[in-house]
Each structure stands twice: as structure tokens, then as C-alpha cells.
Amino acid sequence: MVILIVVLALVVLLAIYLIVLYNGFVAKRNFLEEALSGIDVILKKRFDLIPNLVETVKGYLNHEKETLSNIVNLRNQALNANNADEKLLLDKKLGNAVGTIFALAENYPDLKANTNFLGLQSELSEIETEIERSKRYYNGTVRDYNTSVESFPGNLFAGSFGFSKRNFLELENEAQRETPKVQF
Fold this sequence. Notes:
The protein is mainly alpha-helical. Helix content is 78%, strand content 0%.
């Protein structure tokens, strides 16, 4: 009888442990999804700002119509993206394309002095900072989630519960990792 009670107690403790472990995985996965949703919200702010930027710039950059239409197309694709990976990839392309507008603006002094353009440029800069923070937060939640999925004894049960390792958001271009050369 004592052996039966001990075995039953061990089974109950194991069941409680598995429930706590599973709930921990679920909580960390939800933090991950929340972090990704936060990135999505900030990207939407950027996507909403881009048409205003394009309209402000249109009158000045008559020779750059292709650049502007490329930005509008990328924005529309990103808004209609079906999954987070696709949206983040299009976001990178869009960020590069918007950067070209600011580079082109250097050739147009009137545009550089336009208060609407300067305001939009400032707002876009703030949004880029928010995107960077959100991506950092997302990577932190990925780290915590992956640690729980890969650490013992969680790694024994994570796969059977349907939890697997997630990828960090990383730089795609190796050149971005290199220290820039500054020459005078």
C-alpha cells in the first residue's frame, strides 16, 4: 500500500511538473507572438507614413519616378504579406528604398529645406528607432523561449508538446557587420 501511494505521488508530481513546464512554454511563445505583433504595429506606422513622404517628394524628384513607384509597390506588398517572415523581408527592402529618397534629397536643396519633408524625415527616424527597439525585444523573447525549449529537462518534452526553436532577427547583409571606414 505504501509503495502504491509513493508511486501515485510521483505520478501526480510528474503531472504537475509537466503542466507547469507546458504552461511555461506557452507563456514564452505568447511573449514571442506579442513581440512580433509589436514589430508589426510599428511597421504599419511606417507603412502609413510612406505615402505622405512619397507625395511630399513627388514634386521635387521628377526624374526619380521609378524610385517612388518602387517604394509604393514595396509598401503595398508588405501590407499584403501573408506571414511575418515575408513582411520582415519586405520591410528590409522598403527601409533601403526609403533610404534612397533621403540620399536623393541631397541633390535637391529645396526639398531638403521643405518643412513637410523635414517633419516626415524626423518622424520616420523616430519610427526606425522604435523598430530597432522592437526587434531587440523580439530577439530577447526568442532567447528566453529558445533557452527554455533547449534546456534540460524542458528539451525532453518541448518537441512532444509541439514547441521548437525559433530564429533570431539578424542582419542579412554581411557588409552591415563591418566597421565603416571613415576618411578625411
